[in-house]
Amino acid sequence: MSTGDDIRNKAEEMKGKVKEKVGDATDNESLQAEGMADQAKAKAKQVGEDIEDAARDARDAAKDAIDR
pTM of the entire structure? Predict the structure, then answer.
């Protein structure tokens, strides 16, 4: 995963937090829910990318072990 992906995911998560807080402040349940959904989506993307990284690292470690 690239640093750019990390930044995009964090930005999306922060955007969701802002929406949720604005929804809280204005009693807008729809905006609150949208903000919470944005946060969940960003976190899910991050988890998926972390899994890809772990799989790539495991593959590389296995390849290195075989090459020895």
Answer: 0.79
